[in-house]
Structures are given as C-alpha cells and as structure tokens.
Amino acid sequence: MWEALQFEFMRNALFVGILVSICCGIIGTLIVVNRIVFISGGIAHAAYGGIGLALFMGFSPTLGAAIFAVIVALLMGIISLKSKHRADTVIGVLWAIGMAMGIILIDMTPGYNVDLMGYLFGSIISVPKTDIWLMIPLCILILLITVVFYKEFLAISYDEEFSFIVGVPVKPLYFVLLVMVAISVVMIIRVVGLILVIALFTIPPYIAEKYTRSMGGMMALSSLLGILFTIIGLFISYNYDTSSGATIIMVAGTAFFLSELVASPKT
Hints:
Blueprint: H1 8-33, H2 37-57, H3 61-82, H4 87-108, H5 116-121, H6 129-148, H7 150-158, H8 160-165, H9 170-209, H10 215-240, H11 244-261
Helix pairs in contact: 1-6, 1-9, 1-10, 2-3, 2-4, 2-9, 3-4, 3-9, 6-9, 9-10, 9-11, 10-11
C-alpha cells in the first residue's frame, strides 16, 4: 500500500480524492436531506453536453462542463420551483438532451484525442495538475458558503415553509445550493465520472445519516466515509489494475449493503 505513494500520480490521486470527498460529504448531505438527488443526477449528466461543446469549440472540457452544469442547474431550479408537478419530467428531458448533445458534438469534432471514458467513468490517477489547482479554491468556496449559511441551509432543509415565513431567503439559497452542486459535479467528473457521480453524492450521506444527530455531524461523517472509500478503492484499483472510479464506487456500495445488514442505526 505505502509503496504506491512513491509515485507522484498516486499522491496526486490521494489528494484529489480527499478534496472531492470533503465536497461530496458537504454537498451530498444537502442533496439527501433536501431530496434533490434526481436534480443532481440531471445536472451531472447534462454536463456532458458542455464537454462535447468544449471539444467542438476547441477549449477546455472542464471549463465547458462547468459552464454547462451551472446553466443547467439554474434552469432546473427555475423549473422545479415553477412547475413542481412536472419537474421530474422536464429534468429528465434536460438530462437526456445534455447527454445527446455531448455525444453528437463529440462525433462532429475532427481528430479529438481526449480520453472521453475518463469523463464518463472517471480516472483519478490521471487528473492533471491544472485541475487540481482549480479544485482547491472550489472546495474552499463550497466550505465557506456552507459555514456562512449553515443555519439557513439547516432551516430550509427541514422546514422550507416556516423558513420562508421567518424571513430566510429560501429561493436564493436554493439556487446557491444548485450552483454548488454544479461546481461539485465538475470536480467529481475526473474522479468517478458522470455515470457514477450520484453514488458518491448519496452513499456516504445515506450511511452517515443513520449514525448522526445533526446535519453538521452528517457532513463530517460523510466526508470521512468518502475519504475512506476513496483510499481503499484507489489502492485496490492500483493493485488489481481496475478502473479507479468504478472501484471506488464498488467499495462505497459494499459499505452501503454492510451498513444495512450489520450496523445498528441511531435510536
């Protein structure tokens, strides 16, 4: 295990995994308690359209995914607030259109040589340093926003109507949350890929919720679980030459079923 850390790409992968796990612990908790898992999945998959557009236009796929993810997040937020009874249908349509758009634009891009499988299924060991330096301020930004607005997020997560009555800016914070989800998606893309992103958002918070009594505790335990799953998955992937993203999710999935079978939840 320790001999793998002599390689720079493994040290970078470990650092990236810790950053992403912290963000997933925070954002994933907010996603789970606010019941917006489907919206988060729509944002993640629609972001593939941004990757295709970036390749077609000749700029950074990460930047393309970020721009597209934020735009789609805002659109989904507007739709979910104005047409709640049809929101799931429209979100599903945007999800599908984003993926289809990305595939078509990539097909139309001559001579591209980007490892697209890395964007779909993740490749934590090949995350470039430029992306790592981008992840650091993004992770700090998400952490700061959560700390500053923690009480407000807590209020709207458990009683949205009462929060609105007492003056909490429910709608603006809802859009802030969706933008944070979009930012997190961009960070996670290179680790587990668009296909598996929802698992990293939801599995650690789901397990953590059973053993914590506060949203802050849930965030902290989710982050620690994410780090643990990432480390174990990373070294299994290294030793057995398997896909890093899929291996991390399989570790998380195994923990999910074990927590259902053998652990005693809080009382």
